[in-house]
Design brief:
With about 450 residues, the chain is an alpha/beta fold. The protein has 3 domains: about 60 residues, OB fold (Dihydrolipoamide Acetyltransferase, E2P) (Beta Barrel), CATH 2.40.50; about 180 residues, 3-Layer(aba) Sandwich (Rossmann fold); about 140 residues, Beta Barrel (OB fold (Dihydrolipoamide Acetyltransferase, E2P)). Strands 9-8-7-10-11-12-13 form a 7-stranded mixed sheet, with helices on one face. A 7-stranded mixed sheet has the order 18-17-16-19-20-22-21, sandwiched between helices. β10 and β11 form a beta hairpin. It is globular and about 65 Å long. The N and C termini lie far apart (about 50 Å). The model has no long low-confidence stretch (mean pLDDT about 95).
Length: about 450
Amino acid sequence: MVKVGEEYQVRIEKINSQGQGIAYINSFVVFVDYALPGEVVKIKIHTAKKDYAVGRIVEFIEKDPRRCDPVCEVFYECGGCHLMHVNYEYQLELKKMMVEDAFKRIGKIEKEVNPVIGMENPYRYRNKAKIPVGKRRGKIVLGFYKPNTHYIVDINKCIVHHEDTDKVIETTKEAIKKFHIEVYNELQHTGLLRFVVVRRSFAFDDLMVILVSKGMIDNAKKVARFYKYKLKNLKSFYVNINPKRTNEIFGEESRLILGDETIRDKIGDFVFEISPVSFFQINSIQTEKLYNKALEYLSPNSRLVFDAYCGIGTISLFLSKKAEKVYGIEVERTAIEDAWKNARLNKVKNVEFIWGRSEEVIPRLIEDGKIPDAVVLDPPRKGCDQNLLESIIRAKIRQIIYISCYPSTLARDINILLNAGYNLVDVQPVDMFPQTFHVETIALLEKD
């Protein structure tokens, strides 16, 4: 029996989807934080459950030469990144392993996975930051939560966010002192300022700052002007009101204090308007590569295409370049409103957006005789709804382009489609989140 506090020497066999090494002690699985496949390490167990244990490295016996020193001084404390202790080329290899492992273990699929499409510069790529604000021993702290806690790791800069995020952190700390803004206390549900959210356009240099507060901040216009003085490219300043005792960041009301209602950014040739709560891909550079791959997969003679889980219509607009007609379906009403705005903004007329659940709308469209040549699936982490997959299978839709942020549910759903007679043509991972264990994957399936 593996016990907490005991030390063991183990060989790391592979890596899991959370970036932990996997070892075995008498066939009992042990996850080892920050360990790499092939390494031999001495570990100390800090968590022991019925089916598994978790340990940390106390000594290297055989160390992988591709290890490196993290460029972030709080990497091991913060938990926002997971692979910064590994050179970038090997990060991409590890992510390929994660996709292959999910396909073999969960999907029972033997398929060659393409090398991961990486970034030329795998830092400073995030166009959005959600930064909790707190106070510890009288000191204002802004940063990110330590894993599995609400302990805020105080930071002055973050190497994966745009440089303007660092300036916003500094400005916020100054503003709290200058305007005597009361910081929120999560345990007592007192105070005001809970989060600062930063949105930064990479294409147009525009900056949006949203202060999330329990109530309205006094002298909000003066506060906004102070931010504008410090941040010359600030285009939009909001206060979002969230009075609830909740883990959700945003409340229902966002008040524009200074500047424009939205900022704009681009993916490829398309311009998108971004409001405080709009969904927009975090990494604009890699998103363009991902969507171009979807466009490459799409058959050139596609008359009708369905874009399930379409969000604000980003993929739909890309597909409109090749398809005669695209229907985008999305359950979030505000996202559908944004999708229509984006279609008008880009003067795209061969798209139509429908509000509703994809698993309800698409079967209805099919029953009405609208049989698409292709369907694009980009579901949340939990994967596709079973009813939607069954509708696609029954309609014998010739082409499926499946985009997933979670290899496990992707492998599960592809297994269902393969058993229904589809062929898996191509699997292409894309590194949307360098320095983390997350990997986006796009797969093409076709029916003869």
